[in-house]
Amino acid sequence: MPVNFGMLSSMDAMILASFAIVAVAYGIYAGRDRCIVMLVSTYVSLAVVTNTPAVSMLNRALNASANQSLQLVWFVGMFALVFFVLWKSDLLRNLGIDRGIWWESVLFSVSQVGLTVSSAMFLLPAEASSKLSPLFQQAFLSDEGRSVWLLAPIVLLFTLGRSRGWALLGGGDDE
């Protein structure tokens, strides 16, 4: 279903503008490396919440299986936990030192915010997500939209992080 951007409502425009402003401001404030830690936290949290049987068993044990919004709560909680663990780990302790080039930070933050919004909207109950405008359903919930938000950060990590990654590992230009 193609989206007609000419039919953009004022509410949709305001939400899109807010999304852009928050993503850019967040990217400039946080820096590239912190955005990467947030991306990894988002991927891990989404994988755990959507694929770990323990989450379903815990929902049943708490008698909360009927509350479909609980998956979103699990996602936010898991995100906070994973972010804290990654941020305190020896492996990533020095990652936040390099803020990176401003445009890299902005690209990573837009992809991270988009991935988080897409993941959160995916975890909403169907009746809640069906109330969203067709533009947001297409951009964040459709197969194409979710694929873009899930793959864009990986493509950015590969293309923008390649030379620095090799340098950090002691590799040269010939490797």
Describe the structure.
By secondary structure, the protein is an all-alpha fold. It has one domain. Helix content is 74%, strand content 0%. The chain contains 8 helices and no strands. It has helices at 10-30, 32-51, 53-61, 70-88, 102-123, 126-129, 134-141, 143-168. α1 (10-30) crosses α5 (102-123), α5 packs antiparallel against α8 and α7 (134-141) packs across α8 (143-168). It is globular.
Taking pLDDT < 50 over at least 5 consecutive residues as the criterion, the unreliable ranges are 165-175
Major pleated sheet = none
Q: Strand fraction band?
A: under 5%
Mean pLDDT: 77
- What structural category arises from helix and sheet content? mainly alpha
Number of strands: 0
What letter string, H or E per element, gives the SSE order?
HHHHHHHH
Mind telling me the C-alpha Rg?
Answer: 18 Å
Keywords:
175 residues; mainly alpha; 8 helices; 74% helix; globular; disordered C terminus
Task: Annotate the secondary structure layout.
Layout: H1 10-30, H2 32-51, H3 53-61, H4 70-88, H5 102-123, H6 126-129, H7 134-141, H8 143-168
What would a concise description of this structure say?
The protein is built from 8 helices and no strands.
